[in-house]
Amino acid sequence: MDEEHLTKRDWIYQIKGIINHHLPKYQKGNQPVRVVHNVILYMFVHANSAFHQRLIEAVLSLGMNSQVDINYGDVPLKLNGKFLTPNIGSDKKLIIHETFLSYCWAMTYSILVLYVETIKHPYLNKIAGREVKK
Q1: Is 97 exposed, middle or buried (0-12, 13-18, 19+ CB in 10 A)?
Q2: Residue 1 lies in a domain
Q3: In this structure, are residues 12 and 45 in contact, taking their beta carbons and an 8 Å threshold?
Q4: How far apart are CA 36 and CA 28, in angstroms?
Q5: Which one, out of 101, 107, 110, 117, has a CA that is 20 to 30 A from the CA of 4?
Q6: Which residues span the domain enclosing 104?
Q7: Whether the predicted pLDDT of 114 surpasses 90
Q8: Which helix (H) or strand (E) holds 69?
Q9: Is residue 81 a contact partner of residue 71, using CB atoms and an 8 Å limit?
Q10: Is residue 22 included in any domain, yes or no?
């Protein structure tokens, strides 16, 4: 499947070919986390079968804007004394900064790697009767 025929959601389900590719048409931003923006939104909406409907009801009952605004750019997490964490704008739209998403990705990935390397792999090696690194 080439870039021109790849839809916004196709790459999420792709099982063959180059999966780690950047499609500027769909992946805005200039930090590496840009390639997971659509995945984050997709997983957020599809966390479980009832979540999407509950989210819609909450948005409507609170008068929230259903859009998510991702601010792109290489800016620090703290700018002019203010942390750029997710917040609700005056238009009641959720605002998330790309730098904050990069920070969350880095922390999450680091914790996953630490878990796999220090707990999961030694455990599996022990079960398999292989050398357990200390």
Answers
A1: buried
A2: no
A3: no
A4: 10
A5: 101
A6: 30-127
A7: yes
A8: strand 68-71
A9: no
A10: no
Q: What is the DSSP secondary structure assignment for residue 118, as one 8-state letter?
A: I
In a domain, 5, yes or no: no
Amino acid found at 11: W
Q: What phi-psi label fits residue 81: left (phi over 0), alpha (psi between -120 and 50 degrees) or beta?
A: left
Q: What one-letter code names the amino acid at 39?
A: V
The region of weakest confidence among 3-17, 18-32, 89-103, 120-134 is 3-17
Among candidates 52, 89, 98, which has minimal Cα distance to 71? 98
Name residue, tokens 């997971």. Answer: 36
Percent of the chain whose pLDDT exceeds 90 = 17
Q: At what angle do helices 51-62 and 37-45 cross, to 10 degrees?
A: 90
79: Cβ–Cβ under 8 A, 6 or more apart, which residues? none
In a domain, 17, yes or no: no
- When divided into structural domains, the chain yields a total of 1
Query: Is the whole model's pTM more than 0.85, yes or no?
Result: no
